[in-house]
Amino acid sequence: MNERIVRLIYDGEKGERLDKYLVDCFPEFSRSRLQSMIKSGRVTIDGIEANKTGESLSAGATVQVNIPPPQTTDLIPEDIPLDIVFENEDCIVVNKPAGMVVHPSAGHDTGTLVHAALSHAPQMEGVGGEIRPGVVHRLDKDTSGVIILAKNDKAHHWLQNQFRMRKAVKTYLALVDGCPATPSGRIEAAIGRDPRLRRKMAVVSPKKGRQAVTEYELLEAFPEHSLLEVHPITGRTHQIRLHMLFINCPVAGDTLYGKRVGDISLNRLFLHACRLQIRLPGESRPHTFPAPLPVELEQVLTELRENN
Hints:
Blueprint: E1 4-9, H1 18-25, H2 31-39, E2 43-45, E3 48-49, E4 62-67, E5 84-87, E6 91-96, H3 113-120, E7 144-150, H4 153-164, E8 169-177, E9 184-188, E10 191-193, E11 201-203, E12 213-221, E13 225-232, H5 239-246, E14 271-278, E15 287-290, H6 295-307
């Protein structure tokens, strides 16, 4: 299997770190793996080999990454049931439950979506990255809903480009505390690492974070909560949760960024990826893959409607 060459045009604010930018562009690789690629001379900026992992980028810069062939993985497939929405020879679309981590990471060595997918489709081994085979995009551990995985390198490159070029349309349902000031809106607020607590992200100044854009529409209002349809235009870590907090409407059940409001039976984050529209490899028209709201979230809405 040959190395893969990816060329990117940087469209962010001047001064962003190279390794930080690449983490967002290549979710299948860890930051340390990308830093290793930079140190080994596999990354150039405007045709010049990057000197350091924290090198600053300028708007319009051309970043080229020479991705080495994947090595064999030590991941052991696990026979974990999957709610499969769609599958063909190129990809598998899964309705991920809340509580399942997408790929192995610190503290999550087993039981991930990747472990389950490898058991179902062994040919995914090595696709895109040794630790995160098949991963094209991610959902938070406590977010449920539709997610797509690639089953071969060609499909992985195609699907990843759909997300990178913002041609994949993601739709979420979110119950939030309070009510937005307007029934629909567009939130533009940069996101970066929280300087006070590294495990959290935060809305920061454009110079310290990456551009993030979210659109929302009010579907249903309750005395203390609102049900929103949310469309993240960009794909930053914890983007919807942070942008809802930014407009003083944190996602219900969010123990990291919000607080409990009202007496509702909710033991998880009320955030569900309910629909994904994307073009599959080699096709000209997009497919739409839905994922119904989980029973426990439907029950919360039923209780709110009965008490309204």
